[in-house]
Specification:
two-stranded antiparallel ribbon; Phage tail protein; CHP02241; mainly beta; structural molecule activity; Phage_T4_Gp19; 6% helix; 1 helix
Length: 143
C-alpha cells in the first residue's frame, strides 16, 4: 500500500466559495444526499407497494472551527446576502496535516443558512468555536 492509499486519520476541511477561501475547518458534517421515494399501492395487488424514486434531497453541510482571522471572511459572505442572494459554487477539500488533498467535493448553488459564534463564560473556559451551515442543490465533480 502506498502512502497515497492510506486513509486520512487527521484532516482539516478547506472551504472556498467562488474562488474565495473561507479558511480551514476542523469538522464537516452533512455531506450526503438521499433519494426521496413515493409509495404507490396498486389496486388488486395486495402483496406489495411500489416505491418510486422522485427526486434527490441534499442535506445542509455544517462546518466548525475555533475562531480565526478567517471568521471575518465568513462574516463578509453572510453580509453579502443582504444586497441580494446570489447562489455560488463552493468547494470543500479534506486535507491531511501536511496539506495533501485526500478528497474534495464541489457544491452547486450554495447559500449560507446559519452562522453561530462562540459562547463566552468565565465559568467554563473553552475554545471559542464558530459553526457555519450552508445549503446546496447538488454536487459537481472536479475543481
Amino acid at each position: 500500500m502506498s502512502v497515497t492509499d492510506d486513509p486520512a486519520v487527521s484532516v482539516c476541511f478547506v472551504v472556498t466559495v467562488d474562488g474565495i477561501e473561507l479558511g480551514s475547518f476542523n469538522t464537516c458534517d452533512g455531506l450526503g444526499c438521499e433519494v426521496v421515494l413515493e409509495t404507490r399501492e396498486e389496486g388488486g395487488n395486495n402483496s406489495l407497494s411500489w416505491q418510486l424514486p422522485t427526486r434527490l434531497r441534499y442535506s445542509n453541510v455544517k462546518l466548525s472551527r475555533p475562531l480565526t482571522r478567517d471568521t471575518e471572511k465568513v462574516a463578509k459572505w453572510f453580509a453579502s446576502m443582504t444586497t441580494g442572494i446570489k447562489r455560488r459554487t463552493a468547494h470543500i477539500e479534506a486535507r491531511t496535516a501536511d496539506g495533501h488533498v485526500v478528497a474534495q467535493w464541489g457544491l452547486l448553488e450554495v447559500v449560507p443558512v446559519r452562522w453561530s459564534g462562540p459562547s463566552f463564560s468565565p465559568e467554563s473556559p473553552k475554545v471559542a468555536v464558530e459553526t457555519i451551515e450552508i445549503a446546496h442543490h447538488g454536487y459537481v465533480m472536479g475543481s
